[in-house]
């Protein structure tokens, strides 16, 4: 499964239909939350998706506004409402024990039922099957263009990402609307079921990967991906825009214009980070057949960040996403990911195994016992590789030669 996210450019009449469908779905979502709450207060359990579907049908019959929208999307929204309720009740159960709807009314344990979505805070709907939408090809000015046909939306929609090949069975399609300030951007996220292409045989053998903040990833063969601190680079521009925005009159045209610019800048930062994680994970998975990583919770790593500057660095590195992408790509390419004990990986000398204590600010590992000198993270990665190999061989003896 993979998801192709394409920006779509609906014209004004198409936009009207999409906006209407989003709003109708929002109404259904809110009504179903009421239903869930009511059933829960009477029976002490949530209604099933089947029950919610029945209620949805009733809503459709009673409201012409809802009936005008594409009905299959409403049942997807019913699923979504059910999921949301189940999830919030689950978290509540974990933290406070059994959910008591009577106490909820007085907000004893805070908000633990999904919130109602006002206008502007519900921005998507889903076509459940490939019968509800289609990908069409049109010849225009001698060029083949890819267009999207969505259920009930008149005509064909222009879309971006023309070069990405679509192969495999189309599954669902989620249409999203993003508020940029003075205009909306629309996206279609198409889920495609495909057989992953086999990667070419890796050129290099096992590798240890040390992830961190100043070096996003350091490999045991010496390759280092540095953190380029995109947020810090953009900080001046961000601050300027924020300042201008705070002085503008809320809701005015000028305000909306500034907000749009700010949103675009944030998007730029996000895309940059995303590009980094994709490039790094692709490089690692393409070149190595066994990937060793530290078994650590990124959340715990984040918690030690002491100030905002450091937190921004963490966000730039987006370590959680990186680990997830490496694992996902390795899985689809048939590579092995091995998680090892993270204890002392940065302190141990990878050549002689003696402990060399160093602060986080010391970037270079240089061993006073054997004279081995390397980047701190590369040294860590070498230790991770050793543990990985030991785990594969089923013996915890740090003796296999490296290099
Ligand atoms: Zn040493």
Question: Portion of residues in helices?
Answer: 40-55%
Write out the distinct hetero groups bound to the structure: zinc ion
Shape: globular
Number of strands: 14
| Rg from Cα | 26 Å
The H-and-E topology, N to C, reads as: EHHHHHEEEEEEEEEHHEHHHEEEH
Task: Point out poorly predicted stretches.
Answer: 399-403
Category by helix and strand content: alpha+beta
Biggest beta sheet attributes: 7 strands, antiparallel
Tally of separate domains: 2
Q: Quickly count the helices.
A: 11
Mean pLDDT: 87
Distance from N terminus to C terminus (CA atoms, Å) equals 37 Å
Strand content: 15-25%
Q: Can you list the strand order of the major beta sheet?
A: 2-6-7-1-5-4-3
Short description:
The chain has 403 residues and is α+β, with helices and mostly antiparallel strands.
Helices and strands in order:
Elements: E1 2-9, H1 12-43, H2 49-62, H3 64-67, H4 71-96, H5 101-105, E2 124-127, E3 133-140, E4 143-150, E5 157-159, E6 169-179, E7 184-193, E8 207-211, E9 215-219, E10 224-226, H6 230-247, H7 253-287, E11 290-294, H8 298-303, H9 308-317, H10 319-333, E12 336-340, E13 364-366, E14 373-375, H11 376-393
Parallel strand pairs: 8-11, 11-12
Antiparallel strand pairs: 1-5, 1-7, 2-6, 3-4, 4-5, 6-7, 8-9, 9-10, 13-14
Helix pairs in contact: 1-2, 1-4, 2-4, 6-7, 7-10
Zinc ion is lined by residues 349, 351-352, 354, 367, 369-370, 372.
Overview of the structural elements:
- The protein has helices spanning 12-43, 49-62, 64-67, 71-96, 101-105, 230-247, 253-287, 298-303, 308-317, 319-333, 376-393; strands at residues 2-9, 124-127, 133-140, 143-150, 157-159, 169-179, 184-193, 207-211, 215-219, 224-226, 290-294, 336-340, 364-366, 373-375.
- It is globular.
- The protein has two domains: 1-195, no CATH class; 207-393, Nucleotidyltransferase, domain 5.
- Helix 1 packs across helix 4 (71-96) and helix 2 packs across helix 4 (71-96).
- 45% of the residues lie in helices and 20% in strands.
- A hairpin with a 6-residue loop joins strand 4 (143-150) and strand 5.
- The strands form three sheets. It has a seven-stranded antiparallel sheet. It has a five-stranded mixed sheet with strand order 10-9-8-11-12.
- By secondary structure, it is α+β, with helices and mostly antiparallel strands.
């Amino acid at each position: 499964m993979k998801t192709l996210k394409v920006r779509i450019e609906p014209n004004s009449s198409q936009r009207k239909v999409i906006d209407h469908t989003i709003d109708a779905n929002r109404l259904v979502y809110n009504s179903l939350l009421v239903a869930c709450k009511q059933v829960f207060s009477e029976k002490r359990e949530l209604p099933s998706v089947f029950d919610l579907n029945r209620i949805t049908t009733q809503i459709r019959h009673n409201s012409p506004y809802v009936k005008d929208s594409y009905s299959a999307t409403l049942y997807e929204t019913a699923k979504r409402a059910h999921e949301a309720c189940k999830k919030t009740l689950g978290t509540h159960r974990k933290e406070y024990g059994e959910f008591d709807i009577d106490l909820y009314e007085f907000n004893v344990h805070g908000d633990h039922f999904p919130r109602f979505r006002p206008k502007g805070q519900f921005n998507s709907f889903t076509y459940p099957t490939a019968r509800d939408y289609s990908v069409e090809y049109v010849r225009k000015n001698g060029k083949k263009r890819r267009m999207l046909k969505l259920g009930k939306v008149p005509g064909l929609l222009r879309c971006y990402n023309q070069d990405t090949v679509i192969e495999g069975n189309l599954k669902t399609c989620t249409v999203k609307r993003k508020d940029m300030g003075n205009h909306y951007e629309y996206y279609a996220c198409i889920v495609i079921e495909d057989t992953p292409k086999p990667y070419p045989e890796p050129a290099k053998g096992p590798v240890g990967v040390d992830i961190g903040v100043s070096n996003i990833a350091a490999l045991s063969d010496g390759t280092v991906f540095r953190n380029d601190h995109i947020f810090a680079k953009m900080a001046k521009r961000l601050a300027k825009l924020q300042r201008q925005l705070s002085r503008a009159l809320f809701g005015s045209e000028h305000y909306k214009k500034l907000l749009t610019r700010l949103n675009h800048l944030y998007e730029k930062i996000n895309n940059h980070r995303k590009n980094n994680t994709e490039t790094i994970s692709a490089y690692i998975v393409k070149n190595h057949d066994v990937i060793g990583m530290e078994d650590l919770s990124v959340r715990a790593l984040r918690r030690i960040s002491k100030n905002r500057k450091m937190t921004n660095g963490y966000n730039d590195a987006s370590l959680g996403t990186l680990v997830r992408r490496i694992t996902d790509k390795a899985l689809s390419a048939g590579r092995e990911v091995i998680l090892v004990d993270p204890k002392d990986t940065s302190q141990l000398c990878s050549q002689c195994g003696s402990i060399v204590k160093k602060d986080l600010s010391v970037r270079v590992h240089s061993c006073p016992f054997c004279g081995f000198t390397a980047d701190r993270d590369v040294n860590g990665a070498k230790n991770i590789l050793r543990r990985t190999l030991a785990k594969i061989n089923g013996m915890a003896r740090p003796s296999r030669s490296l290099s």
